[in-house]
Amino acid sequence: MNTLPSPTPLPIDKQIIVKAEMVNKNFGSLHVLKDITLEVRQNDVVVVIGPSGSGKSTLLRCINHLEKIDNGRIYVNGRMIGYFERDGRLVEESEKTISQQRAEIGMVFQRFNLFPHLTALGNIIEAPVNVRKTPVDQAEADGERLLARVGLADKRDKYPNQLSGGQQQRVAIARALAMKPSLMLFDEPTSALDPEMIGEVLDVMKELAHEITMIVVSHEMGFARAAANRILFIDEGRILEDTIPDELFANPREDRTKSFLSKILH
Amino acid sequence: MYHFDWVTFWNYLYPPSAFQNPLIRNGFTVTIVVSVVAQVFGVLLGLIAALGKMSKFALPRWIAEAYIWYFRGTPLLVQLMLLFFGLGVTHIYDFPALNLGFVTVSGAIQAGTLALAINEGAYMAEIVRAGIESIDPGQMEAAKSLGMTYGLAMRRIVLPQAAKVIVPPLGNEFNNMMKTTSLLVIISAPELFYAFSQINARLFKPFELFIALSFYYLFLTTVWSFIQARIEASLGERKGVEKGPSMLKRLMTGNVHR
Q1: Is A183 helix (H, G, I), strand (E, B) or coil?
Q2: Reported pTM
Q3: How many domains does chain A have?
Q4: Choosing a second label site near B118 at 20 to 30 A (CA), which of A129, B77, B129, B198?
């Protein structure tokens, strides 16, 4: 059980974007992540599945240091996230450094978390203008391009409460892309959506999958089949499977994977 | 039967005649200026105390909690006496008159404004904290995930949204503040109440004079309630919030809260 499945063979020249080494995380007495070791390479699209409470969202949130880790190392683009080492121990980085590291990592949330007091375009340019100090006209021009890309060019002046759930999530994706991240994290991006809106968000994500490294916590198996080159199954804080989607569906190695898949594939 | 002195009443109520009296003229200005300045500093202190109370570090949390505990738990009158006479008699600070060029601010007014601001800050702290805590933590997370620091996220994302929750009780606080300035009479700060007390000491017409005075406060609080309604409406409009109860209803029920 402790031996990890061998990762999908990938061209060696591809750069490693995310590297996790023996990451452990506890919430009080609950051991949510157990010795997580993972490499995600450039342009990988990794779908993470697993029962609720298995630690898949926590893993995602550790990658941009929204959650602290207890031990182990997480690197993004070769830089350790959230900590530096002193005498072999982890010391948390300054807030400023952590913020700069997060700026390189886009995140999309289950509940969208758009800023309700800002328009669609306002949401998108907020961080480029205030964090990156991009001039407003340039940020607006970039923002309009991103809105067009997610199919919402006509909604630039709408507030989040004037948009449907699917539209809000597409704005949230554009907002994350506005920081030109090298990695995108999606935390159950379609779970809070009405069924008829899931497709429009997945379509945007499929487009995106061609050009950016993504880690997606989602049970949308259609998306996994169509867009992902890797799928991880996490249960009780461990990565039990790491393979290509078709392989997982055809030959799940673990009994727990089989029983989980039978539940979500109906 | 008591003979109501309409002439005195009218003399001290009707602004063109009442404002001939420098006590009333200055008192009116002092009441307004002290209220505004004390409220502004009270909000700032409240914001600092609220952030202190929510800090992940123990020291700012303790300082903020002690501050709120003390200033909400003791009478303003005691705080006024302590600040003005207490600091004066020990020569910790004598509150010398402050010359701002166009006007000189007496020590009593400085001490009174300071005491009101510090007292107000303790109440505002709870209001600001409740406002901040009413905002979905996902907002802070989203802001952080975009590379914003805590301070920037607070300023650009959380506080503008919390303002919608903070402004209605803040308006009530200011309404109270204008009335509470009357307590400054205890340190002889020349505000409105002081003015009418001085006039009453000379004329001894308390019934007429204090009815007249009550209209001054009523005027101030009523004008403010209209301004407040405007502010709240403009906050609501931008964020697509439905309108609160009508102005008349709010005045009559005396309930400016939503």
Answers
A1: strand
A2: 0.84
A3: 1
A4: B198
